[in-house]
Design brief:
The termini are far apart. The chain has 5 domains: about 15-165, HPT domain (Four Helix Bundle (Hemerythrin (Met), subunit A), Up-down Bundle); about 175-285; about 290-470, Histidine kinase-like ATPase, C-terminal domain (Heat Shock Protein 90, 2-Layer Sandwich), CATH 3.30.565.10; about 475-535 and about 545-615, CheA-289, Domain 4 (OB fold (Dihydrolipoamide Acetyltransferase, E2P), Beta Barrel); about 625-750, 3-Layer(aba) Sandwich (Rossmann fold). Strand 12 (about 510-515) and strand 13 form a beta hairpin. It is flat, with a radius of gyration of 38 Å. By secondary structure, the protein is α/β, with parallel strands linked by helices. It has a 6-stranded mixed beta sheet. It has a 5-stranded mixed beta sheet with strand order 2-4-5-7-6, with helices on one face. The protein has a 5-stranded mixed beta sheet with strand order 16-8-9-18-17.
Length: about 750
């Protein structure tokens, strides 16, 4: 017996599975709207909005088919466009005959779509259809526009599309807000599962109580037998009858409780399985490949590198890794900021790279991958790396740390300072660069996703930022601890260990209580102190001769020991976000409802570590009153009287004292006469322009740190580079000028 011949795939078959599925879903939607539109036009032939909507649908089909190399579908969709355009122009009118002909074209497109998706040839002679279906011309009427039907006509009363007997809807479109709601309900089901487990525990207590009662009845029965052997009164019979009745009721209660217990065990087990499957199913629906956002960045990197005259190659790896849609939404802006910073701060100019023995083409690698419980995003470059000394100077200038604190920080801790609000080591500020906006957004978004950031940098070799994000966002596995008889939840992923800490192992370093773990000094603090809770009078800070319950938190390379009153439990909880009135409460990431019905605060481990650092700082003495009230003085150099007047008013309204100069030479003379906190200057001026003034100022050592802001109409990249080379601190273009930019820049630089 000869084997059946193998089916030959149609030449119109779409080879790529993802494109095949996407095209099928899109065409089904477009064709459905076109069918509905035709039915509507038969009753309302003069509705221009409906015709316009149908034009869009036909145009979408034509564009998709053309992109995928399906000329037959594209041709028929184009014919529909021509007919609808003729109706719009008034060249023809909608009649039942025209609607029937367009409907036949839609049926033909539907068969061709099936051919492209399944690979089964439709045997449609598209050339004959195209030959007889010429587009309408102005002099023609609807009688002259004929569209030949497909060569293979369906039987009467049979739908035109194939495989009607096995019709199935294989995919649907779901609004993401509905998935979000389902995800929340799945989390609530998890909490319900925990509550059922608590009820089961209550039932076990009832069973234990019943068993104890049964033993007491058994003992009392022996006592009754003893009494019965010594006397035989009517009272004794009554007692005996009472005991028999009591035993019968107790036995019935026992059978009922055991049956309830068995059923509840079965229901609890089944609920556990269903809730887990539901949560996993919903989570899978929300997964999208990382390429969804990764593919947005090649153009960004190319344009930004070209703008700065740098050569950068972006390598993307792990785009097929799938992550929750919320991760993609929350990470788009942070990744954009990181890439911009890598190009702006980290990547050198080609000439500098060649001088350093590197390839003139820099490499930025964007890598995504998944572990058991986390999505990892790594962004690395082979640029100059982080400048530790520049970070220290900026930290001191911005008041992020004091000098003695910087001395005690490790390189890793210094690297982490770049995520502080408003932090920027950029010495040259423009409208889009060096304003300290970006990496703070990265940290905020990562913490919102219950994640952490790690920075690794080697001077002259490059920098890597590693973002570690949780895959489970609606629920969290937490450790419940007790403080002042109140439960608090700490996400387990930040808990390295729990241990008993002898009081004798605690000592003090630089004003902080400290312990030694793995040969490393770790700061410790009471959780009640970090949360600013009252300490009971009977509970001294560290009582003698006792072991303390200590939780070791670990975030990246940072570790902290937290003293609690006791450990309660581990469980999965549903995170409830804060209301708008409590949008960002320090040390708190949200709340939850425990299985017992109690409301429990979920703590933010990152904030706890910061709270320890804040508590260890001494209060910086305030300046004398007369110094604090003294105005900062600005030298304003501008030759245009109108611009000079406007800028002077802006600066004085912001609380600055302003001294004006009419050109660069006048400005330099006044600068040498008294002390100024900053210089704001135009570039194009007589006698001495702004670039010459800046260079002349920078020749003096005492003015090397003096902020100089150039405000000019010269807006090209070359002009900005000239300003930076001259020694300017900031460059603001007048065509994008607003007073907030100027005031904000002054506040950052002074």
């Amino acid at each position: 017996m000869n084997p059946a011949p193998a089916l030959t795939k149609s030449s119109q078959y779409i080879q790529d599975e993802e494109l095949r599925t996407t095209f099928k879903i899109a065409c089904e939607e477009h064709l459905q709207k076109l069918d509905a539109g035709l039915l509507y036009l038969e009753k309302n032939p003069n509705d221009p909005r409906q015709i316009e909507a149908m034009l869009r649908e036909a145009h979408s089909i034509k564009g998709d088919a053309g992109m995928l190399g399906l000329p037959d579908i594209s041709t028929l969709a184009h014919q529909l466009e021509n007919i609808l355009n003729s109706v719009t122009k008034g060249e023809i009118s909608i009649t039942p005959n025209i609607c029937d002909q367009m409907s036949e074209v839609l049926d033909t497109i539907r068969q061709l779509v099936s051919e492209a998706v399944t690979g089964i040839p439709s045997n449609i002679n598209i050339a004959a259809i195209h030959h007889q279906a010429s587009p309408p011309a102005p002099p023609r009427t609807e009688e002259t526009i004929t569209l030949a039907p497909p060569p293979i006509q369906p039987e009467k009363n049979t739908p035109h599309h194939p495989n009607t007997d096995n019709y199935r809807i294989e995919s649907i479109r779901v609004e993401t807000r509905n998935l979000d709601a389902l995800m929340t309900l799945g989390g609530e089901l998890t909490v319900t599962k925990i509550r059922v487990a608590h009820r089961l525990s209550d039932l076990e207590n009832i069973v234990n109580l019943w068993e104890e009662w049964s033993r007491n009845v058994f003992i009392n029965r022996f006592t009754l037998d003893e009494i019965q052997r010594t006397t035989n009164t009517n009272a004794l019979k009554q007692v005996q009858n009472f005991h028999q009745s009591y035993e019968q009721h107790l036995e019935q209660l026992g059978l009922l409780v055991e049956s309830l217990k068995s059923s509840l065990y079965e229901d609890s087990t089944r609920l556990d399985v269903i809730s887990s499957e539901l949560e996993e199913g919903i989570r899978t629906l929300r997964l999208l490949p990382l390429s969804t956002i990764f593919n947005l960045f090649p153009r960004l990197v190319r344009d930004l590198a070209r703008q700065q005259e740098k050569q950068v190659e972006l390598i993307i790896e792990g785009g097929e890794t799938r992550a929750d849609k919320r991760i993609l939404e929350e990470m788009k802006d942070p990744l954009t900021h990181i890439l911009r910073n890598a190009i702006d701060h980290g990547i050198e100019l080609p000439a500098d790279r060649i001088a350093a023995g590197k390839s003139p083409i820099a490499t930025i690698r964007l890598h995504g991958y998944q572990t058991a419980n986390h999505i990892i995003l790594e962004i690395s470059d082979d640029g100059r790396g982080l400048d530790i000394e520049a970070i220290k100077r900026t930290a001191l200038k911005r008041g992020v740390c004091r000098e003695e604190e910087l001395a005690s920080l490790s390189d890793h801790q210094i690297h982490s300072l770049i995520f502080s609000p408003g932090f920027s080591t950029r010495t040259f500020v423009t409208e889009v660069s060096g304003r300290g906006v970006g990496l703070d957004v990265v940290r905020t978004n990562v913490e919102r996703l219950k994640g952490t950031i790690q920075v690794e940098s080697s001077p002259g070799k490059g920098c890597t930022l590693r973002l570690k994000l949780c895959t489970t966002l609606a629920t969290a596995h937490v450790l419940l601890v007790a403080v002042n008889n109140i439960p608090y939840a700490i996400p387990v992923e930040f808990v390295e260990m729990a241990r008993l800490l002898p009081v004798d192992d605690i000592f003090t370093i630089e004003g902080r209580d400290t312990m030694i773990l793995d040969n490393q000094a770790i700061s410790i603090a009471r959780l009640a102190d970090l949360l600013e809770l009252p300490t009971p009078a009977e509970s001294p800070l560290f009582s003698n001769n006792q072991n303390l319950s200590c939780i070791i938190l670990k975030i990246g390379q940072e570790r902290l020991g937290v003293i609690v009153d006791g450990l309660l439990d581990e469980q999965d909880v549903v995170l409830k976000s804060q209301s708008k009135l409590l949008q960002r409460v320090r040390n708190v990431s949200g709340t939850t409802i425990l299985g017992t019905g109690e409301v429990c605060v979920v703590l933010n481990p990152q904030d706890l570590i910061k709270s320890v650092q804040r508590q260890s700082r001494t209060i910086i003495p305030t300046l004398p009153t007369d110094t604090a009230k003294q105005k900062q003085v600005i030298l304003l150099v501008e030759d245009s009287i109108a611009t000079r007047t406007q800028e002077k008013r802006i600066l004085e309204s912001a609380g600055y004292e302003v001294i004006t100069a009419v050109d660069g030479l006048d400005g330099y003379t006044k600068l040498r006469e008294r002390r100024f906190d900053a210089v704001v200057s135009d570039i194009q001026m007589p006698n001495l322009d702004g670039l010459g003034l800046t260079q002349k100022i920078r020749q003096h050592k005492e003015y090397l740190e003096l902020p100089i802001i150039l405000v000019t109409s010269l807006a090209s990249d070359e002009d900005k580079r000239r300003g930076a080379s001259a020694g300017a601190s900031a460059y603001i273009t007048k065509n994008a000028f607003n007073q907030e930019v100027l005031i904000e820049t002054l506040k950052r630089l002074i």
